[in-house]
Amino acid sequence: MLTLTQEAWEEIERHAVGTFPEECCGIILGHGQSDDVHRCTNIQNTLHARDPQTYPRDATIAYAMDAKELESIIKQADASKAKIKAFYHSHPNHEAYFSDEDKAFATPFGEPTFPESGQIVISVYDRIVKRVRAYAWSQEKRDFIEIALKKI
Fold first, then answer.
1. pLDDT tens sequence across 48-63
2. How does pLDDT run across 2-28, given as a tens digit for each residue?
3. Is there a contact between 20 and 124 (Cβ–Cβ < 8 Å)?
4. How far are the Cα atoms of 43, 65, 131, 150 from residue 59, in angstroms, in the given order?
């Protein structure tokens, strides 16, 4: 099970609604009983504009985290002894499933880069959050499986 504070849950929902109709993305750091949500820039449109052959999808159906932001948040987590609790992103006008593309991002070398971190997907239709689901790496299944997500 993955737990989020009420504040973190509300923040990721606000982020998803605010970026609609594009996907949002970010990282949640856990500090004991508190969570810090770090919004990341979705650079998918920039990648698509620069090289549409390599990046055929735009930000309405894909996300790519800015590498410098990602690195900075990871360094911050290390420095503050925070846990990288979860990565999150939204699916505008789609269900909250963990897609093949989501799995590829989380497992760039066939294994998860952060196997202890959850993956949260937020389904948003017409600026209304319909569902928030969480997924975690199963070493046994060698895949991400849905897990319970709870507000505390």
1. 999 999 999 999 999 9
2. 999 999 999 999 999 999 999 999 999
3. yes
4. 8, 11, 20, 28
Q: Which distant-in-sequence residues (6+ apart) come within 8 Å of 15 by Cβ?
A: 24, 26, 37, 39, 88, 90
**C-beta separation of 90 from 57 below 8 A:** no
CA dihedral (37, 40, 137, 29) positive or negative = negative
Number of domains in the chain: 1
pLDDT of residue 110: 86
- CATH number reported for the structural domain that contains residue 146 in this entry: 3.40.140.10
The ranges of the chain with pLDDT < 70 are none
3-class secondary-structure state, position 80: helix
Contact indicator for 107, 142 with CB cutoff of 8 Å: no
At 121 the three-state DSSP class reads strand
